[in-house]
Amino acid sequence: MEKERQVLVIFPHPDDEAFGVSGTIALHIENNTPVTYICMTLGEMGRNLGNPPFATRESLPKIRKKELQDAADALGLTDLRMWGLRDKTVEFEDDDKLTEKISEAIQELNPSLIISFYPGYSVHPDHEACARAVVRAVGQIEETKRPKLNLVAFANNSIAEIGEPDILHDITAVEDKKIASIKAHRSQTESMVATWAEKMKNQDPTLLNAIRRERFWTYKF
Amino acid sequence: MKPIEPTDVQRVIDGFANKDIYLHLETTNGAYATHNNEDFFSAGAYIRNALVRYQHGKIIGDNPYRIGLKLDIGWIYAEGLNHYEVDEQGRLLTAGLDSTGKLAVALQISTKPFE
Ligand SMILES: [Zn+2]
User: Fold this and answer.
1) A17: CA distance to ligand 1 center in Å?
2) Is residue A23 included in any domain, yes or no?
């Protein structure tokens, strides 16, 4: 993995980083690279409230805020920024204002690498709106000064349309931190993590591969 | 939240009648419904902090329940409700959770705006 000057991660929901990016975050931090994570919303509209429910529509944001902080702590991430937008409304925000907010963060942090979603291939409307705004903000920067964009795509047609991911990180070295941060998002991940125990014991290759290999597409303007 | 006790919910609904109340109403299949099943037609609606006043309200049905609120010039209703809570701020929070615990519908009433 290349050594970066500064990494900026931008996602709309707490836990968007958990499965596909948290290992990469931990690797950069272990490499003494500063990492900033901007999380646009608190996932207020999450449908998982626990089963039986331990949260309500109204207590969920407070719970998810704490979970996000715990997940960041598990990765050793110290610059966590919560923007306070509302879940499922990001696409209805003013496009120019959202782009400007991201541009300001880029100016302040001067990242050499930005990690976010891939526009058109990230399924959730908030992911798409976040991805479009990030690409717009970076696109406004003079070509030679642009940070790299490593993006996450998971729409069913991703590989058919944009090809295989060109960046693969083996994060086995920080696997424990990654799993701890996934577990920290308890309200959203508990039922899934519960199905892992048996597979972990048997060293299930599909699961281990999914956890240990993080994949990104480099965005080309 | 716990399973709905209709008599208790009815009592709380009655307490909010003929007052200015803030309403949260939401239905959702989740943003991944079509991703998980291409044939699924995803639909939902959301309104937060609608300021309304109802003449009377009623909970009816046999788990899941329906709640309807009669306004001076209109109606509000939700169906599929099976859980509720009156929280520490005295707000009525009702929800419909599917068999896996995922929220599918929510109807909530408060005398102060929701955050
Ligand atoms: Zn998300």
Assistant:
1) 8
2) yes
| Interface size between A and B, measured as CB pairs under 8 A | 61
Domain count, chain B: 1
Q: pTM surpassing 0.90?
A: yes
Task: Identify the band that residue B27 occupies on the pLDDT scale cut at 50, 70 and 90.
Answer: very high
All residues at 6 or more sequence positions from A54 whose CB lies less than 8 Å from its CB, including other chains: A187
- Distance CA(A67)–CA(A86), nearest Å, equals 17
Report CB contact under 8 Å: A57, B101. no
CB contacts of A51 in chain B (<8 Å) are 97, 100-101
Domain residue limits at A212: 7-218
A192: domain CATH number?
A: 3.40.50.10320
Q: From B1, B26, B24, B47, select the one nearest B105 (Cα to Cα).
A: B26
The interface predicted TM-score (ipTM) is 0.86
The CATH number for B8's domain is 2.70.180.10
In a domain, B17, yes or no: yes
C-alpha span between A139 and A122 (Å, rounded): 19
Instruction: Give every residue of chain A whose pLDDT is below 70, as ranges.
Output: none
pLDDT at B37: 86
Residue A191 is predicted with a pLDDT of 86
- The structural domain count of chain A equals 1
